[in-house]
Design goal:
It contains three helices and eight strands, in the order βαβαββββββα.
């Protein structure tokens, strides 16, 4: 839990259709010299995201291993925003997709992320899609901060590549 409080705001359901049609969508692709199983291992590690980026200040898997459909976790960004996430897809070693179900601050309507790991001749490729929909009143703010959001997400992916390669 972050210092902002204990109140949780429920988000609307988000699935595959939302990942394609969200008002704000970020897709980052990075080639990694490590084999796909090592890349996947990094994505499911206890310190996933936190060890890649100073922007991600907490990750807690709230479901015991082995992970699969229904797995849950909490992720904290900049010690301010915490999301509770539930995976609706888990193709071990290849793809996992979640929708955020709650957030500790108001402002989001929907949030989903898709992680895909592909084998390549020189290692693996990681494709990360983040889709979000703010409340209508905040759409303008997200549009204004869009370059900063995109830069932060690119930094997370570069950090993952540095960690795994």
């Amino acid at each position: 839990m972050t210092w902002l409080g204990r109140r949780w705001h429920h988000l609307l359901e988000a699935g595959d259709d939302f990942l394609v049609a969200a008002p704000f969508r970020y897709v980052n692709t990075v080639d990694v010299s490590a084999p796909s199983d090592e890349t996947w291992k990094a994505l499911t590690a206890d310190d996933a995201l936190v060890s890649w980026s100073p922007a991600v200040t907490g990750v807690q898997w709230t479901t015991p291993r082995p992970f699969g459909v229904g797995t849950t976790r909490e992720v904290t960004i900049l010690r301010l925003i915490t999301t509770r996430e539930r995976y609706f897809r888990w193709d071990e070693g290849r793809r996992k997709t979640f929708a955020a179900v709650q957030v500790n601050v108001p402002g989001l309507r929907r949030l989903a992320e898709d992680y895909v790991v592909e084998r390549t001749p020189n290692g693996s490729r990681f494709v990360w899609t983040l889709a979000l929909e703010p409340h209508p009143a905040l759409k303008c703010i997200v549009r204004l901060t869009n370059p900063a959001i995109a830069r932060m997400l690119r930094g997370i992916v570069r950090g993952m590549r540095a960690q795994v390669s």
